[in-house]
């Protein structure tokens, strides 16, 4: 059995609300710079799916986390990876991963779009292997440590504190007892927000904070010490992601666990954070690592007694499903992220929806990733490649 076709679907979907809050029609341009996060975002929901087919008609789907210009992913897979994949066995996935990684390694492309494209292919190959063998991916990974996956509601995308508290309360009433605030607007304001959420949800709720790389070591240490009495579960991305020494210093000063990793893609990038004891919780994103590499990262973390809380932001069906399978299959899981607005859009592209209820994802039980992509709906949101 050989791989015969590789097809890419760069998508642009118009949501009701911009990711992390705001309206979709405020500006004419899709891409805009968010000063508070020092990053470009899209007012649309963008991603790139990949479909791999064998000569016997088996199909696997993957996805790269590509919130801006997903056409780049499509071009890389179509012109660089597809010739390496066609004619090969889908069960040679480790060998194929090495070839795709090596393809541009000596030119310095060991992160970024190149590895995102590799992640999409890797996810598709796992889905394909599961479909061929009629087994769910988590079984191929060695089995499930848990039959459902605990999660936290991420972001609370409301414009003011009162609305954020009300939204957190509504989720708590639905059985979701863990929330993460997307803040980083200043130490004082972050403290006010966390205190208000704690008062709203009570002592039993888990509360986390994503600071979006906005603080110095001193500021982050002050924030962590101030929030420790409020029972903050982790402080995510407090410093610039390149600052390994700063994270090591902060971890030594912080009574709150330090979480990081959404910007990293390989075990090589996570290794210095692990070896220098610069983090308590690692947050690799399967749409940037792929399933295979995320499993390597989780195993490396386990040897250092670290937990893994996979990052999951704007990835749609294949990314979400792959994250659930990996989260079930690793022993050192902390918790998985849950983005309700994104989850709803993801399910619009599936014939049978994924399920997240009462603070847990249900583990898909059918073959592969356990999702059935509605290709007609996917094609309705297809972008033109422009590279």
Automatic annotation (TrEMBL):
Protein name: Enolase
Residue ranges annotated for the Mandelate racemase/muconate lactonizing enzyme C-terminal domain, each copy included: 159-257
Domain of life of the source: Bacteria
Lineage, opening ranks: Bacteria, Pseudomonadati, Pseudomonadota, Gammaproteobacteria, Enterobacterales
CC cofactor: Mg(2+)
Keyword tags: Magnesium, Metal-binding
Coiled coil (residue ranges): none
NADP recorded as keyword: no
Gene3D superfamilies named in the record: Enolase-like C-terminal domain (3.20.20.120), Enolase-like, N-terminal domain (3.30.390.10)
PANTHER family: ENOLASE SUPERFAMILY, MANDELATE RACEMASE, MITOCHONDRIAL ENOLASE SUPERFAMILY MEMBER 1
